[in-house]
UniProtKB/TrEMBL annotation:
InterPro entries: ClpP/crotonase-like_dom_sf, Enoyl-CoA_hyd/isom_CS, Enoyl-CoA_hydra/iso. It comes from Halorientalis brevis. This is Enoyl-CoA hydratase/isomerase family protein. Pfam families: ECH_1 (PF00378). Gene3D superfamilies: 2-enoyl-CoA Hydratase, Chain A, domain 1 (3.90.226.10). PROSITE patterns: ENOYL_COA_HYDRATASE. Belongs to the enoyl-CoA hydratase/isomerase family.
Amino acid sequence: MLATTDEESLRVITLDRPDRRNALTPDGLDALQTAVTETDAPVIYLRGAGDAFCAGADLDVVADLDGEAAPAFAEHGQAVARAIETSDSVVVAGVDGPARGGGVELALACDLRVATERATFAETGVTLGLFGAWGGTVRLPRVVGEGEAMDIALSGRVVDAQEALRMGLVSRVVDDPKAVAESLTDNDHAALSLLKDRMRDTAAQETQEAREAETFATLIERADFDR
């Protein structure tokens, strides 16, 4: 269901249910959260096995939800996405193939989304009478803007890699997304974590600027200008 490999300064997490396009069950969500939170690696690379990134929630699980279980399942996925977003590690989603529903939402929680030309994205929940509830309605407008987010969510249409790049849903389209994650490990590891923390700050601007100055001072004291 999930495979983890630790390389030098890099943890590779592979969603490993290729026969179900790496759809996630509650156990899979738990395993993903553990893999993200229980590591000291400065960079995490999240990928899917086979020809898909992630189809989102396993529809067999979703079909059995009732009015009582549905909020808990949504909150479960939200907690995993939040763990990705708040991880001390920089998390890179390598999207090589389809990302659908919850798969898009998990990618949105990552710090960088890097795609191949084979990548496609869609919030298809609306075609089933649903919508993504793993934080997608919060993060998608923040990443691509309200207009693009409305179009993606209300239409359920498929966005290819080049359109995703144009709208900022991904930052790069490359042949080897893992190489991008590996390149980040060449940077100062403390700076990576602290910079992510600053970029994720949602406090008032004045508070953010004060924290930025404090963090800069912290890094100056340990910077190696001879690197």
